[in-house]
Amino acid sequence: MEQRLNDDDLGVFQDALLGWAAVRLREMPWRATRDPWGILVSEVMLQQTGVARVMPKWHAFMEAYPTPADCAHAPLGDILRLWQGLGYPRRARNLQAAAREVVVHHGGEVPQELDDLLALPGVGPYTARAVLAFAFELDAAVVDTNVARVLARLAGERLTAKRAQTEADRLLASGTAWLWNQGLMELGAMVCRPTPSCDECPWESWCAWRGGDGDDPSVGSAGVSVPQGRFEGSDRQARGRLIKTLGEVAVRADDVARVMDRPSEVAAKLLADLVAEGLVVIDANEFVVLPG
C-alpha cells in the first residue's frame, strides 16, 4: 500500500472518502444516536446478521432494555425470545453478560477505554473500536469484514489482522472518526463488494487492484468473511428450531430430537451444548426450558 499512497497524498485520499461518505450514508437508527449502549447493542446484533433483519429487532430491544441495567436484570429467557430471528443466540447471552459487567464495574455506563471494552464478554477488537468511534467519536479505526476487503484491495495483497489494523490506523482522518469509519464501512458494503463496482469508488485511482485485475487479494485476508455453510439441515438450524419452540412452550427432553428434526444422538449432543452454554435448562421434571 505504501508504494501507491504516501503520507504526502494522505490528505487528498482522506478527503475523497469523507466527501463521498457525507452524501451517501444510508439511514440506520444507530447512526442517529451517540448512546454507547444503543451502539453496543447494534454492533452485537450486526455480527453475522444483515441490516434489514437487525433494524426492527434493535428498536424492540432498545424499547425493552434501554439501559445496561435493564438488560442486566432481565431474565435471559426473555432476552432470547426477543432475539428470535437474529440467529446465534449466544450473542444475546454475551450481551447480557456484558451489561452485567458494565453495571458492576462501570456504574452502569458503557466505558470509553479500549481495554475496558475489550474486557466485556463478547466484545472483540472491532466492536470495541466501533463503540469508541461511533458513540464517543474518538480516533479509533474499525476493521470489519467490509473494511478488511477494501484495505486488502488497496494494498494489492493479502493482509494479516495486525497489518490490516495498522493500515486502518494510519489512514484514519484524525478528528473525523465517526464519518470516516461509517464511510469506509459503507464503501465496502455498497461499492467494494465481493463483486466490486470500481468506477463508483472514490479511491479507484489509489487502488492496487482496481478493475478486478488478477486474483482478488482480499480472498484469504484476515477478517474477510467467507461463504457460510448451508443453513438448511444444519446444526445451527436445529438449535434455532429448539430455542424458537422454547420461546412458546417447554419441551420434554425425550421430544428434543423430534423438535430439532435431527437423529437422537445428534440432538442429544446439541442439547448438551445448549445447556453448557447456558441457553437452555433441563428442569427437575425433564422439561427443557429457557433460562429464567
Summarize the structure.
With 292 residues, this protein is mainly α. It has helices at 10-22, 36-46, 51-64, 68-72, 76-83, 90-106, 114-118, 125-134, 145-155, 161-171, 177-190, 235-246, 256-260, 264-276, and strands at residues 251-252, 281-282, 287-289. The chain folds into 3 domains: 7-25 and 140-212, Endonuclease Iii, domain 2; 35-134, Orthogonal Bundle (Endonuclease III, domain 1); 235-289, Orthogonal Bundle (Arc Repressor Mutant, subunit A).
Architecture overview:
With 292 residues, the chain is mostly helical. It is built from 14 helices and 3 strands. A 3-stranded antiparallel sheet has the order 1-3-2. The mean pLDDT is 93.
Record keyword descriptors for this entry.
292 residues, mainly alpha, Endonuclease Iii, domain 2, Endonuclease III, domain 1, Arc Repressor Mutant, subunit A, 3 domains, three-stranded antiparallel β-sheet, 14 helices, 3 strands
Percent helix, as a range, is: 40-55%
Q: Which oligomeric state applies? A: single chain
Please give the radius of gyration in angstroms: 21 Å
Give the rounded overall mean pLDDT: 93
Q: Under CATH, the topology of the largest domain is which? A: Endonuclease III, domain 1
Q: In CATH, what is the homologous superfamily of the largest domain?
A: Hypothetical protein, domain 2
Helix-strand string: HHHHHHHHHHHHEHHEE
Per the principal axes of the C-alpha atoms, what is the gross shape? globular
CATH architecture assignment of the largest domain: Orthogonal Bundle
Biggest beta-sheet profile: 3 strands, antiparallel
Name the structural class: mainly alpha
Number of domains: 3
